[in-house]
Amino acid sequence: MLDPCVTVQNVTMSYQRHPVVHHVSVDFPCGFTNAIIGPNGAGKSTLLKIMMGMLVPDEGKVCFNHDETVGYLPQQSDIDRSLPITVEDLVATGFLASGSIFSKIPEDTMTKVKEALATVGLTGFENRTIDNLSNGQFQRALFARIIVQDADVILLDEPFNAVDAKTNLDLCRVITNWRTEGKTVIAVIHDFHVAKEYFDYTLMMACEKVAFGRTQDVLTEQNFEKAYSASLYWDDGAEVCSVSE
């Protein structure tokens, strides 16, 4: 039996009193890569933010079962790239959880920053400001920041959105390395081909849970039809779902 790393228990989240995540329960296993897939507006990113503690659900809860440290990569659109900081500075902020923003960054820490940049193919970009990066380069820098955090559980919100094919492949290899290191990865993605190739388990959502299990068992024509039909006919004007007090 698989050891559950993150347990989502009967989670419902509403916007304007209508559920976007509707009574979702799932156990994400420790040490595996987990994809969250579904149509646009299916509640995937909302669920990830609930797991991260950025949103409080109307009902249900999320439990990290082994006191894991957690790293989170938001969507690029959620990040202000006008800040006048360098790539090296951005990656070094991954250490803030274990130190003060006012402390001098030790030399061994900067060595880890350079190693992380090499891992994502950004050696030589240390002093470039983040506003001068392409989408692919910026995403590589964000992955380097996650690398230096060295968290047990890594949550990724659409990590392959608007990046080129080479960057996509390189970042998938980073995710594979994390799995080899025994980390648990949970990522919202859109490309089911990437899910089949690099993710062990998949949660398919359409506001509700459509299916969860081994990726090859979940990504079936029947489940896709069910997910997209549920999304197409989801009634935003339906009566408000009752929520337990």
Automatic annotation (TrEMBL):
Task: Describe the location of the ABC transporter domain by residue ranges.
Answer: 6-232
Which controlled-vocabulary keywords does the entry list?
Answer: ATP-binding, Nucleotide-binding, Transport
On whether Membrane is a keyword of this UniProt record, the answer is: no
Top-level division of the source organism's lineage? Bacteria
Q: Which residues form a coiled coil?
A: none
> Pfam families under this entry?
ABC_tran
| Annotated InterPro entries | AAA+_ATPase, ABC_transporter-like_ATP-bd, Metal_Ion_Import_ABC, P-loop_NTPase
Recall the GO molecular function terms of this protein's record: ATP binding
Cited PROSITE patterns:
ABC_TRANSPORTER_2 (PS50893)
Under the heading PANTHER family, the entry gives:
IRON TRANSPORT SYSTEM ATP-BINDING PROTEIN HI_0361-RELATED, METAL TRANSPORT SYSTEM ATP-BINDING PROTEIN TM_0124-RELATED
Q: Which family does it belong to?
A: Belongs to the ABC transporter superfamily.
What name appears for this protein in its UniProt entry?
A: Zinc ABC transporter ATP-binding protein AztA
Q: Which organism is it from?
A: Wohlfahrtiimonas larvae
